[in-house]
Amino acid sequence: MSPLSNDTFLRALMREPTDYTPLWLMRQAGRYLPEYCATRKRAGSFLQLCKSPGMACEVTLQPLERYDLDAAILFSDILTVPDAMGLGLYFEEGEGPKFERPLKDENDIRRLTAPDPHDELQYVMDAVSEIRRALDGRVPLIGFSGSPWTLSCYMVEGGSSSDYRKVKSLMYSRPELMHQVLDVTAQAVTTYLNAQIQAGAQAVMVFDSWGGVMSHDAYREFSLRYLRIIAQGLIREHEGRRVPAIVFTKGGGLWLEDIADTGYDAVGLDWTMDLGKARALVGHRVALQGNLDPAVLFASPDAVAEQARRVLDSFGNHPGHVFNLGHGISQFTPPENVSVLVDTVHQYSRQIRTAR
Ligand code: CP3
Questions:
Q1: Distance from Cα 267 to the centre of ligand 1, integer Å
Q2: CA-74 nearest atom, ligand 1
Q3: What are the sequence ranges of the domains in the chain?
Q4: Considering only CA atoms, which residue is closest to atom 8 of ligand 1?
Q5: Distance in Å, CA 27 to ligand 1 centroid
Q6: How far are the Cα atoms of 25, 79, 167, 315, 316 from residue 163, in angstroms, in the given order?
Q7: pLDDT (0 to 100) of residue 225
Q8: Which of 20, 36, 67, 154 is catalytic?
Q9: In the annotation, is 31 catalytic?
Q10: Engineering a disulfide at 223: which of 149, 200, 299, 330 sits with its beta carbon 3.0 to 4.6 angstroms away?
Q11: What's the 284 CA to ligand 1 centre distance in angstroms?
Q12: Residues 204 and 246 sit within 8 Å (Cβ to Cβ)
């Protein structure tokens, strides 16, 4: 494997000094890019695209051809894991993800087992190795998974939900069954991420997208606990280098200090939190990743640059920041605004470092 020519992202995650603030964008390969839409059309569907390593590799690299991003992220979806557990993932146009066989009763839950990543999920491992080869050391590759709680939301609800009625009633009425789902899922996530690391992922991220919908106590018992179990089971060094792990609980700002203590190297933040205050709370325990409101990208180029500078100013001139959006980029984003964002972050963060 070629040595990395740009390891700024990995160094920022380890809170080492860097010449500028590295950035990548959640969902950087997606429908806002016409070239992505073209490949997806060729694949036939989003799921076919995920399941074809060659095309998944192609779309992973597309945003890097356009923009000077500091990391690539595996093109896949968090729901490939429950799909591999036999739930039957499908996407209905305009309606988001659905499962043919959601977990509807105790029998379904008792039967649930963690999939072998080299069996039903081998296509993901193939994509990881193919992307690593194609990147040829340009920037590091991020692997990812959903958190046990977030995956369980989809597995129990059978798709997206606005009120989490089914999964929350399971959690409150049959907590032991909820824990059974989370236990198996945490095991699945750990082996899945470790297989991605062995296939070539140089950092990993756990998306706890729906952690923020829980109460204070429930978050600790049903999400944080499993995030910690995963952190403890991850391979932390590979190819002679630290493999940093990032955790992102959307809506988790209020619980930042507890999240910073779960054993990850970095914590992702959504746009509701001031980065300077967040940094003061976590000190040197973890790096921070975030946190521009993705809706800023609908505004004028000047507004994009202004808001990006604000995020950099709020973090200040310290090591340990990876610039990102506070959630995934929208399909309605004008691609030109992403160029403005990337250039502003690189230029302005260099400026902050030299001004004393
Ligand atoms: O960041 C990246 O570029 C890597 C790819 C990636 C996708 N999904 C591609 C995708 C990643 C990291 C994800 C994670 C994911 N998937 C999450 C966690 C992050 C988050 O957004 O909170 C969640 C909750 C999912 C589940 C999921 N997948 C939903 C709810 C949807 C539908 C939403 C939509 O925009 O239609 C998807 C589909 C999906 N995953 C798309 C992409 C590019 C759009 C599919 C398409 O091309 O039609």
A1: 20
A2: 4
A3: 8-293+319-327
A4: 77
A5: 7
A6: 28, 19, 9, 34, 38
A7: 98
A8: 154
A9: yes
A10: 149
A11: 31
A12: yes
Per the listing, tokens 């700024």 go with: 8
Q: Of all protein residues, whose CA lies closest to atom 28 belonging to ligand 1? A: 77
Question: Of 24, 25, 27, 80, which is best to mutate to test ligand 1, by the most ligand atoms within 8 angstroms of its C-beta?
Answer: 27
- Has 111 been annotated as catalytic? no
How many angstroms from the chain centroid is the CA of residue 130? 20
DSSP strand E in 202-269: where? 203-208, 237-238, 241-242, 245-249, 266-268
Quote the pLDDT of residue 95.
84
Write the pLDDT tens digit of every residue in 215-237.
Answer: 999 999 999 999 999 999 999 99
C-alpha 185 to ligand 1 mean position (Å) = 19
Using DSSP bridges, classify how beta strands 266-268 and 245-249 pair: parallel, antiparallel or unpaired: parallel
Residue 185 CA to residue 171 CA, distance in Å, equals 15
Which of 31, 81, 269 is closest to 192 using CA atoms?
81
The size of the chain, in residues, is 356
pLDDT of residue 356: 59
> Tens digit of pLDDT for each residue in 10-33?
999 999 999 999 999 999 999 999
44 lines ligand 1 (CB under 6 A): no
Nearest atom (ligand 1) to Cα of 25? 1
Instruction: Report which protein residue has its CA nearest ligand 1's atom 32.
Output: 96
State residue 99's pLDDT score.
98
236 is catalytic: no
Quote the tokens at residue 177.
């069954």
User: Ligand 1 pocket, 103 CB below 6 A?
Assistant: no
Residue 321 three-state SS: strand
**Is there a contact between 74 and 141 (Cβ–Cβ < 8 Å)?**
yes
CA angle 10, 1, 12 (to 5 degrees): 5
Q: Domain 8-293+319-327 belongs to what topology?
A: TIM Barrel (3.20.20)
Burial 185-216 (b: 16+ CB within 10 A, else e): bbbbbbbbbbbbbbbbbbbbbbbbbbbbbbee
Which ligand 1 atom is the nearest neighbour of the CA of 49? 47
Q: How far is it, in rounded angstroms, from Cα 227 to Cα 206? A: 8
**What is the rounded distance in angstroms from the CA atom of residue 343 to the CA atom of residue 67?**
9
- Mean of the pLDDT values across residues 341-348? 98
